[in-house]
Structure formats: structure tokens, C-alpha cells
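Sat 14:20. Reprocessing the chain from the morning session after the first attempt stalled halfway. Input below, unchanged.
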Amino acid sequence: MTPPVPEYLSPLRWRWILLTTQHQEVRFLYWPPRRSAGHRRIRMFDREGYDIGTLVWMVCDDCRAGSINKISITIEHQHQGIGRRLIRRALADGPGYTWQTTGQSPEAEQFFPAIEKETGVAFPAYGGACEHLASPPGYRPPPPGRRPRPVLERGIRGHVAFPPKTCGPVRRGGASGGGRRCRRPSGAVRGCR
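Finished this time. C-alpha cells:
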């Protein structure tokens, strides 16, 4: 059976994404928000094109606040670092912001404290960090119509076994022009993002 084509993508565009990313274990598609404090979404697809998870978050630049509204990953793909990479991607949209989550499942009650230790960012459930992130009373989803087209998210490493990075010292000068460098546990050195 052929996997379904993600919404707002043409079958031709989806085939192209599958073809150009066939070496990746996981593909990440990003749906940008319709408005600045709107929902942002990343859906993950396995090598065959089947949906394996999603992350939905919101960011309010006026209040410097963010909210993780949903993170779900299929059981087969959990405990491989994908959730951590997704949260880091969301945090990149609001560096230094106050973050919150919506209601947490029993799995999330274990996941978010571990992420808090790694990132130093607190994720209280229903933190009330911003009034713009809450759905207004009587909220209805927007009517069907023109929506932002999803794009292939290349800022998240798609290989499942990719080790987490640990930042090394700042290097100055040199042929590469200096800047912050990251040392991975394997010993490889890459530019910090």
C-alpha cells in the first residue's frame, strides 16, 4: 500500500521529496504559521513515507513566550533522540523565551523534565505565559482555503542514530573565519548553528 500524500502537497512534489531524501531515515516537513502567533507544525515521515510523528508549537514574539502544544512519535521511533531534536527546533524560534506545554501524558511527564535538565528551559504544563497563545472563547479552526505550503525542514538532522552535539571552545581566526565549533562524541567537528 502506498502511503498517503501529506496535506497541501501535490503528489508530484511529495514524490520529489521522497526521491531527494531517500537516504534519510526520517524526513521532517514544516508547516509555517498563518499568522505570527499561529500554530507551527512539523510532521515526520519514515523512509517509505509513512507518518511517524508530529510536533505542534506556537511562539508569541510580543510576549517572548512559546508553547509546545503537541509532540507525538510512534512507539517504534521513540527513545532515538527525535523528540529532543524537535524540541530544540521549536526553541530555536524563541531563544530566551518563556515556554509552557499543554496537558502532559504520562510519557511527557517523564520527557519534559529530562529536556528541562538538558536545555535549562522550564516547560510547566499550562504555564499561562501569554494570552495570545490561548485559543479565544468559541474558537473555530480557520476555514479551508489558502494555507502555507509545507517545506522540507533541513535544520533537523534526519538520521535517527545521529549523536547529540556538545559544544566545544570558541575558536578565533583560521581559514574558516573562526566562530563557534561543535565537537560531536564521534570526534567530528562542525559549525554551531
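Residues 106-119 form the longest helix (14 residues).
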